[in-house]
């Protein structure tokens, strides 16, 4: 089918490319003409494993192209996806201005029946607003349907998540767009849920908030593990064996971050409030997450006594593994706190150093992860990149002025680290 995707951020670019890979003919639209030029020239604005190769392949095959013209995209496709940012406002609610602008632009460009699909994460009832807006601004007075089709991609695994989704959610207010939506997703062999638009919109916020809750739950348990001398990984393993719970998203950490969980959690709390329900459970999830970082910083300062004047090595800047994204990254938050306390930082990340540089200009950026520890008073692990597990620990121990490691991602074995002579403090494992 001929499809148009508006917005070439993480969601839009992955969606457009994977639709093309599935055999559809796709136009990706972005109002940022520079970005469009870059994509047309084969450049990539983001790092996402496997994406660059897929973009190249599909552009070469003539199934994928980029333009800055919404008019062109809407005129040439009967199905138009909205994948623009929905950033947080200072009060935690969602800024829907990009969605509104794009809805008006689509309305102005529509010449025949069009299915307008919202992929961006939006508050429940946004679909109704999009439909009202399109109706108001569509001079051609053509028929259209609005569909809610939330995305469930994880950064760093987005291509895989798109090609093999757990489920595809399609929220509609009439049956007319359903066959086209099913055809679009036919190549991906996923269970398809057809529901109403409000439920589809709620599924997204409810799912992300539940996953955030799962992480805060295990982080709270990790505190008990430290107080009692138990091991949170053993507890997570035992809990996760229960199929009703599952082991995924039970990795205790210095807290969750990124452009989705913190934002979606605040938004969901605000949405509930605006509808007259105080979602106290989710406020607690937020509180535990913030406290988890405070506890980690305290662990560092309790051990080092004074942070001012210390040189600290930090492995990881991205908000998680496999991405160059530093938005709402716990690692960046940690670095900023340590800098504020007067530390000097030597930092490394396999992908995120360029994006971190303008945010942390004071830090020294080290290309080789094994050189980070040189001359440092302690080493900190802030992101769960799997390659950090291959760190030359013997070299790190010799390089550090004091063999101290703070591990916010539980990457190493406690006994092994102690046997090697490290003072090793991780999350929820023993009295660490
Ligand atoms: C999340 C969801 O997992 C996706 O399903 C959803 O589509 C996406 O948000 C979105 O709304 O766009 P993402 O933010 O890319 O995806 O990353 P996750 O893999 O969910 O990780 C989020 C944060 O939680 C990271 O900081 C990660 O390090 C942390 N985390 C994750 C933990 O601390 N412990 C865990 O066990 C799992």
Task: Tell me about this structure.
By secondary structure, the chain is of the alpha/beta class. It folds into 2 domains: 2-190, NAD(P)-binding Rossmann-like Domain (Rossmann fold), CATH 3.40.50.720; 210-425, Rossmann fold (3-Layer(aba) Sandwich). It is 43% helix and 14% strand. The chain contains 16 helices and 14 strands. The chain has helices at residues 10-21, 33-40, 51-60, 70-76, 97-109, 126-137, 158-163, 178-185, 197-228, 232-240, 261-274, 280-304, 330-340, 353-356, 393-399, 414-419, and strands at 2-6, 25-29, 64-67, 79-82, 114-118, 144-148, 168-172, 192-196, 311-315, 344-348, 364-365, 378-381, 404-407, 423-425. It has a 6-stranded parallel beta sheet, sandwiched between helices. A 6-stranded parallel beta sheet has the order 11-10-9-12-13-14. A two-stranded parallel sheet has the order 7-8. Helix 1 (10-21) packs across helix 3, helix 5 (97-109) runs parallel beside helix 6 and helix 9 crosses helix 11 (261-274). The protein is globular, with a radius of gyration of 23 Å. It starts with a strand and ends in a 7-residue tail after the last strand. The protein binds uridine-5'-diphosphate-glucuronic acid. The site of uridine-5'-diphosphate-glucuronic acid (UGA) has 21 residues, from helix 9.
- On the 0-100 scale, what is the average pLDDT? 97
CATH architecture designation of the largest domain: 3-Layer(aba) Sandwich
* Small molecules bound: uridine-5'-diphosphate-glucuronic acid
Q: What helical percentage do the residues reach?
A: 40-55%
Shape: globular
Number of domains: 2
Percent strand equals: 5-15%
């Amino acid at each position: 089918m001929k499809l148009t995707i508006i917005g070439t951020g993480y969601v839009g670019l992955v969606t457009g490319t994977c639709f093309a890979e599935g055999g559809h003919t796709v136009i990706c639209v972005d109002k940022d003409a520079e970005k469009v030029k870059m994509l047309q020239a084969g450049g990539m604005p983001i790092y996402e494993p496997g994406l660059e190769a897929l973009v190249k392949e599909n552009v070469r095959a003539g199934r994928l192209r980029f333009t800055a013209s919404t008019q062109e995209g809407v005129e040439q496709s009967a199905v138009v996806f909205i994948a623009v940012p929905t950033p947080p406002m200072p009060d935690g609610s969602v800024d829907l201005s990009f969605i509104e602008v794009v809805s008006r632009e689509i309305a102005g460009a529509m010449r025949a029946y069009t299915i307008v699909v919202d992929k961006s994460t939006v508050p429940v009832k946004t679909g109704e607003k999009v439909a009202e807006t399109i109706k108001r601004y569509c001079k051609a007075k053509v028929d259209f349907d609005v569909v809610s089709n939330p995305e469930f991609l994880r950064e760093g695994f987005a291509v895989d998540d798109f090609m093999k989704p757990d489920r595809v959610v399609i929220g509609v207010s009439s049956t007319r767009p359903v066959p086209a939506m099913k055809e679009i997703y036919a190549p991906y062999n996923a269970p398809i849920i057809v529901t109403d638009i409000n439920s589809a919109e709620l599924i997204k916020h409810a799912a992300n908030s539940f996953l955030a809750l799962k992480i805060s739950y295990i982080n709270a348990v990790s505190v008990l593990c430290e107080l009692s001398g138990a091991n949170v990984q053993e507890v997570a393993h035992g809990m996760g064996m229960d199929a009703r719970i599952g082991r995924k998203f039970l990795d205790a950490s210095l807290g969750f971050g990124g452009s989705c969980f913190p934002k979606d959690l605040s938004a969901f709390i605000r949405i509930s409030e605006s509808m007259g329900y105080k979602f106290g459970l989710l406020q607690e999830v937020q509180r535990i997450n913030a406290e988890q970082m405070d506890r980690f910083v305290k662990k560092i300062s309790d051990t080092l006594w004074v942070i001012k004047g210390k040189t600290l090595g930090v492995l990881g800047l991205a908000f998680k593994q496999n991405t160059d994204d530093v938005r709402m990254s716990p690692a960046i938050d940690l670095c900023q706190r340590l800098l504020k306390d007067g530390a000097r930082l030597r930092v490394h990340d396999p992908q995120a150093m360029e994006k971190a540089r303008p945010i942390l200009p004071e830090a020294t950026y080290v290309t080789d992860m094994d050189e980070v520890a040189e001359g440092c008073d302690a080493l900190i692990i802030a992101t769960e990149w799997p390659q950090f597990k291959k760190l030359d620990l013997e070299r790190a121990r010799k390089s550090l002025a004091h063999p101290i490691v703070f591990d916010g991602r539980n990457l190493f074995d406690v006994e092994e680290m102690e046997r090697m002579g490290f003072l090793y403090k991780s999350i929820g494992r023993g009295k660490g």
